[in-house]
Amino acid sequence: MKITRLETLLVRPRWLFLKMHTDEGLVGYGEPIVEGRARTVQTAVQEVEEYLVGQDPRRIEHHWQAIYRHAFYRGGPVLTSALSGLEQAMWDILGKSLGVPVWQLLGGACRDRIRVYAHCGGGTPEQAASAAQALVDQGITALKTGVGRYPARAIESQAFVEAARDRFAAMREAVGPEVDLAVDFHGQISPALAIQLARALEPYHPMFIEEPCLPENVDTLATIARSTSIPIATGERLFTKWAFRPVLEKQAAAVLQPDLCHAGGILECKKIAAMGECYFASLAPHNPLGPISLAACLQLDACIPNFLVQEYVSLGEGYLKEPFTLVNGCIELPQRAGLGIELDDEAVAQKLGHDWKGPKTYHEDGSVGDW
Questions:
Q1: pTM for the full model?
Q2: Is there a catalytic annotation at residue 70?
Q3: What is the DSSP secondary-structure string of 287-341?
């Protein structure tokens, strides 16, 4: 079997889909993307096409090593995200060629269903509580929210901390103690403020705090982790197993959140999961992206023993011929070959083209804020 061409599709709202075509008619799907830099990653995929065309797509590890190591300037968000989508497509082709789901090729299933969590918007405490209750009424058993106003100052007022606490408290009261509530600081909170917020939120038992500070300084993350009883989660902006090593060695996080579209793909994230297992860390893969990304995540979630919960924003309605469905807050173990999905090409054709960029945030004094 040989790869014949790579096809990329800019798909609204902000996604980049990949189709890897072969001479045997099999097509593999992947989602190589950096949010807000879709065209940059699209170009990176095109640059790798010269190497991949004519190659057997089933030599996944070999091609991963060649694409990663033959670039003198290795890694980073753009190159690793391009590689991630390509790797997903190769696994899809391998599974389809053998007639089995990818999870079967990675050691078999550890579970029968995959628990997911949904995003819950902000607003007043009453609005946040109502939104959380509405999701729970739909069968969702785990939610994630933010802390309110962004960007926050390095040192915030008492009112800011109390407002974040009151929103979270209202959500907890609305959904009760059985529903898991996580909170995402999005790397927009200073370490000192993160410690203050964690202390205020502790009585309401968050499932985890995500990215309590920017990921560049692992020692700072470890300091925050030691300051609170709330589990710390990080990883959406870390690339490959090498970036996760110091996080684990310094025990800076209890929950790892590699993004299968950024961190190196399915097998690389399975290696990260195995590293985490040695440190008793759980995996909650990051996924604010499309249905191909979700399909890849589910294959990994199925076969790792230390899986915690899966993020999702789309089940594929309007993109897949057969979207995923939720049953009691879970997605059943995928049974179809490869990634187990088929794009609805006619529906996707109606959503082609975007130039999505992330928001540009500024503080009240006009200085640049983090997003």
A1: 0.96
A2: no
A3: --S-HHHHHHHHHHHHH-TTB--EE-S---TTTBSS----BTTEEEPP-SSBTS-
